[in-house]
């Protein structure tokens, strides 16, 4: 057996690590990934992507074993080798969350959503972190966040082509669409218009579907987020509405519709302070906004 182990290549060690991981043998997986990393680094081959994947895989094993500190270290190394690596960001976010480092976790979850909006784990993570940070820091929790990096379009396009970004056929379809450039933007506008038609008909669920498809093509269109937030409000999906407004404000920090609709959602969720803060932001930019004035009066009367 020792002779066989010595003869194994880094790829064979990696595959053995993968098999151990799938079998729930996380400690052995860490050992095998470590050997694979050592072999590849000693080989002198400049295979940054392969090394990045190995570090990310070992991070997943550490995370499963409850070793969050080592998981974070490996994810950070992986991200240095593969900037904005999808899996490493998610794994580091989970580790940060487990260590109650909620601000860092929020930043990583939000960064993942820039790469691919249709990731439930990232949406759920953002929602959990938003609640945790609101409980800790109050309505001004966003002011204490570390900077959220902007994922360049060139990085999105290159990541969209990577197999590691496609854990399911649905997500693969989404990322493939992002490679179309101007064609994707054109398709996004057409889907957005279809969503607008459904809104006029009062068919908000169908509108949400169209807006989601549109954002899959072009995740940088602010009005699509605020339009979908309006639909979520009608469907009483208030957390989802807040999430869309957050994203709209990340793209356009002065967007009045995003502030107003987030205030509406916060009102329904009984988040009085956050709703007042958002409405004050609206009135600061548009003092004569009657709808915001009326809603502010209603919120101020809440117990």
TrEMBL record:
A Pfam family the protein falls into: TPR_8
Positions annotated as TPR repeat: 188-221, 222-255, 256-289
Sequence ranges of Basic and acidic residues compositional bias: 176-185
GO BP, sorted A to Z: protein targeting to mitochondrion
Region (Disordered), start-end ranges: 159-185
Keywords, ordered alphabetically: Cytoplasm, Receptor, Repeat, TPR repeat
GO cellular component assignments: cytosol; mitochondrion
Main location: cytoplasm
Record gene name: LOC113103416
GO molecular-function term, one example from the UniProt record: heat shock protein binding
Protein name: Mitochondrial import receptor subunit TOM34 isoform X2
Signal peptide start and end residues: none
Residue ranges that the Swiss-Prot or TrEMBL entry lists as coiled coil: none
Biased amino acid composition, Low complexity: 159-171
Record bears the keyword Ribosomal protein: no
Entry's localization field: Cytoplasm
Keyword Oxidoreductase annotated: no
């Amino acid at each position: 057996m020792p002779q066989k182990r010595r003869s194994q290549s880094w790829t064979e060690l990696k595959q053995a690590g993968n098999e151990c991981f799938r079998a729930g043998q996380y400690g052995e997986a860490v050992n095998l990934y470590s050997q694979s990393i050592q072999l590849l680094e000693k080989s002198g081959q400049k295979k940054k992507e392969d090394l990045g994947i190995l570090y990310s895989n070992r991070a997943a094993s550490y995370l499963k074993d409850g070793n969050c500190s080592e998981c974070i270290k490996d994810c950070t190394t992986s991200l240095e080798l593969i900037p904005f690596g999808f899996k490493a960001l998610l794994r580091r976010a989970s580790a940060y969350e487990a260590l109650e480092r909620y601000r860092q976790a929020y930043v990583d979850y939000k960064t993942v959503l820039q790469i691919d909006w249709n990731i439930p784990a990232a949406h759920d993570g953002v929602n959990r972190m938003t609640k945790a940070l609101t409980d800790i820091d109050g309505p001004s929790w966003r002011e204490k966040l570390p900077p959220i990096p902007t994922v360049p379009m060139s990085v999105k396009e290159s990541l969209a082509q990577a197999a590691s970004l496609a854990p399911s056929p649905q997500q693969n379809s989404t990322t493939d669409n992002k490679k179309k450039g101007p064609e994707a933007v054109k398709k996004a506008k057409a889907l957005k218009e279809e969503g607008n038609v459904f809104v006029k008909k009062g068919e908000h669920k169908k509108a949400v579907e169209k807006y989601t498809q549109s954002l899959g093509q072009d995740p940088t269109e602010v009005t699509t987020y605020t339009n979908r937030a309006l639909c979520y409000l009608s469907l009483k999906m208030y957390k989802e509405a807040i999430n869309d407004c957050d994203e709209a404000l990340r793209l356009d920090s002065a967007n009045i519709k995003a502030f107003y609709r987030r205030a509406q959602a916060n009102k329904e969720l009984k988040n009085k302070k956050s709703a007042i803060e958002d409405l004050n932001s609206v009135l600061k930019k548009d003092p004569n906004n009657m709808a915001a004035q009326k809603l502010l009066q209603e919120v101020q009367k809440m117990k």
